[in-house]
């Protein structure tokens, strides 16, 4: 069976499964829509949380980042997994003990302020929509390859699929759908990695194969990759960093605390019966997540090795060292159709010269000795995971599963984010503040309208994303880190923080972070529209905008403590409430409801 037919069958079968589950588990009440009735088993919830967490950024983009940034991309591995530990230890059990539907609802009641609740909604929507844009990029990449069409068409079709099953099912439908999506995505990620590791090193365990010897010449895989890249003017794979070491540290910290502050993940811990189940869910989620994250470094390195091996067929500098464009393989032609892989014959020799034109010394030598006029291949790093099985000539059924896995990853997280946004608008703004006597039926309708609107907005912005998928997601993490994480931590562990401190802390944290991001990427991510005019890139101690969220979090904490000192103290009954959340009496035996 040819690849296209097999891919349609596999992807079609998974979509039929997702939609069938959404219809079967359709939300019939606000409890179903927001927290799936509050009775999901911890193992099932852990699997659903893992799928919710492992987005297009994890499945599609992270290995692409590792492929092109080497050691420097370890910030994503350390930040995202480390952040989950923070979430499990510092937030999930206590928020479950509090027993509310949403993060803004907790902030509103903890800080005894409708204004704090509104600010939390604004911060949540900004972070979540930015995150959804990253998912839309992943959806566009996966669908464009699956349908062999351009990126924009792929994105439009993906928007329709997300809209259908997320709007119908709510949290109940999304939970059971995400369990199925986890099985699909983890199979799709690990199976080709095992094949490729066996092919390159003979080792069936990808993380071990990464440090093993190549079957072709006995050279260690990472040594071979280092040398290949250096020969082509790139940095050594195992030593390159993303900016400075300070930037890597701050970037990792931003991703960690951003993870712990992301509302769509926190919401998952409201779907279990008790505090004990919330802790158990977090543990199981970390287990399920680790199955992918342990394999990701091997996938990234092996994808880069396969790409360079395809394009560079001989020693650098020889006339026939580069692949002739006319002889490019089928996978190359198919990805060209999407517009995410492009070749420009700058010197007219008909061969693909893929060198690093950002290395001045190498570029000068290449121009003098080989008549090189600049790198001729543009590779969108988000295609690497999906293209890797094709580059390695794996069986068609493996390639079809990978496409289905990429779609599952993007769709699962997009659905969770849409639910978080819809909950904030319908439950926190409309029912919580504006129309307090709103009926359950009207609230469900408002949630679905909010979801539909968010799909359209995110899809529009996804047509011109500000960055690669993981980069856009990193901005979302920065916004959550600078605004929601400090408010949640102070709300649980600092009983004296008052409403004024929390409000001004959130405003200061997210404002300075947005200012820094927009200064670099422009207002609404349009270049040349920054607030402060032309300024040096990464001017604040070399910290990139994607990593700035940790700085915003520090500002948030400092402002909150200073304002609290200068204003009226936190009411005693609120302090008692915080004590009860942090040291719950009889929590081992208690089984809390959704409210």
Describe this structure in words.
This protein is an all-alpha fold and 595 residues long. Helices cover 69% and strands 1% of the residues. The protein has 23 helices and 2 strands. The protein has helices at residues 3-24, 30-35, 42-53, 56-69, 74-98, 103-110, 114-147, 151-201, 206-209, 221-231, 245-260, 263-266, 275-293, 296-311, 330-338, 360-370, 384-391, 396-434, 440-462, 469-493, 499-521, 549-566, 572-582, and strands at 341-343, 377-379. A two-stranded antiparallel ribbon has the order 1-2. Helix 3 (42-53) crosses helix 8. The model is unreliable at 585-595 (pLDDT under 50).
Structural class from helices and strands? mainly alpha
Give the integer mean of the pLDDT values. 80
Q: What does the radius of gyration come to?
A: 24 Å
Largest sheet strand order: 1-2
Question: What is the oligomer described by this structure?
Answer: single chain
Number of domains: 2
CATH architecture of the largest domain: Up-down Bundle
Number of strand elements: 2
State the CATH topology of the largest domain: Sodium/glucose cotransporter
Give the overall silhouette: globular
Q: Strand portion, in percent?
A: under 5%
Q: Unreliable runs, pLDDT <50, ≥5 residues? A: 585-595
**Helical stretch tally:** 23
């Amino acid at each position: 069976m040819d690849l296209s037919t097999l891919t349609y069958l596999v992807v079609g079968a998974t979509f039929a499964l997702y939609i069938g589950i959404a219809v079967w588990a359709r939300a019939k009440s606000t409890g179903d829509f927001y927290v799936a009735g509050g009775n999901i088993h911890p193992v099932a919830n852990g699997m659903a949380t893992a799928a919710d967490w492992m987005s297009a950024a994890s499945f599609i983009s992270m290995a692409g980042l590792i492929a092109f940034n080497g050691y420097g991309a370890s910030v994503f591995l350390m930040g995202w997994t480390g952040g989950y530990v923070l979430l499990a230890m510092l937030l999930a059990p206590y928020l479950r003990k509090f027993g509310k539907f949403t993060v803004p609802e907790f902030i509103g009641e903890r800080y005894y302020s409708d204004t704090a609740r509104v600010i939390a909604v604004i911060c949540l929507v900004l972070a979540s929509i930015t995150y959804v844009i990253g998912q839309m990029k992943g959806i566009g990449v996966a669908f464009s390859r699956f349908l062999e069409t351009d990126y924009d068409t792929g994105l439009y079709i993906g928007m329709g699929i997300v809209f259908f099953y997320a709007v119908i099912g709510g949290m109940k439908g999304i939970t059971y759908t995400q369990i199925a999506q986890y099985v699909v995505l983890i199979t799709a990620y690990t199976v080709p990695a095992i094949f490729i590791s066996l092919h390159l090193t003979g080792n069936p365990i990808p993380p071990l194969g990464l440090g093993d010897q190549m079957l072709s010449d006995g050279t260690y895989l990472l040594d071979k990759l280092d040398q290949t890249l250096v020969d082509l003017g790139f940095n050594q794979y195992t030593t390159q960093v993303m900016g400075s070491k300070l930037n890597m540290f701050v970037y990792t910290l931003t991703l960690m605390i951003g993870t712990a502050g992301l509302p769509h993940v926190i919401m998952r811990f409201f779907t279990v019966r008790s505090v004990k189940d919330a802790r158990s869910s977090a543990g199981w989620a970390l287990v399920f997540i680790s199955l992918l994250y342990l394999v990701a470094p091997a996938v990234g390195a092996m994808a880069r090795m396969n790409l360079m091996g395809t394009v560079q067929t001989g020693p650098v500098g020889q006339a026939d060292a580069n692949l002739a464009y006319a002889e490019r393989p089928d996978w190359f032609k198919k990805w060209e159709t999407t517009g995410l892989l492009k070749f420009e014959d700058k010197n007219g020799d008909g061969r693909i010269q893929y060198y690093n034109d950002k290395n001045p010394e190498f570029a000068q030598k290449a121009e003098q000795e080989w008549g090189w006029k600049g790198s001729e291949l543009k590779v969108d790093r988000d295609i690497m995971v999906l293209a890797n099985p094709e580059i390695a000539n794996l069986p068609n059924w493996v390639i079809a599963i990978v496409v289905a896995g990429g779609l599952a990853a993007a769709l699962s997280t997009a659905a969770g984010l849409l639910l978080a946004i819809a909950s904030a608008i319908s439950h926190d703004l409309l029912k919580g503040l504006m129309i307090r006597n709103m009926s359950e039926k009207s609230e469900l309708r408002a949630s679905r309208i909010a979801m539909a609107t968010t799909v359209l907005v995110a899809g529009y912005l996804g047509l011109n994303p500000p960055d690669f998928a993981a980069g856009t997601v990193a901005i979302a993490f920065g916004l959550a880190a600078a605004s929601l994480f400090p408010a949640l931590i102070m709300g649980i562990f600092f009983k004296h923080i008052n409403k004024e401190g929390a409000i001004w802390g959130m405003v200061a944290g997210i404002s300075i972070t947005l200012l820094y991001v927009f200064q670099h990427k422009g207002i609404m991510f349009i270049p040349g529209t920054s607030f402060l005019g032309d300024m040096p890139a990464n001017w604040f101690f070399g910290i990139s905008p994607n990593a700035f969220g940790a700085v915003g979090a520090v500002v948030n904490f400092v402002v909150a403590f200073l304002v609290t000192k200068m204003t009226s103290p936190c009411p005693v009954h609120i302090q008692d409430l915080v004590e009860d959340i942090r040291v719950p009496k009889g929590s081992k035996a208690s089984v809390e409801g959704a409210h």
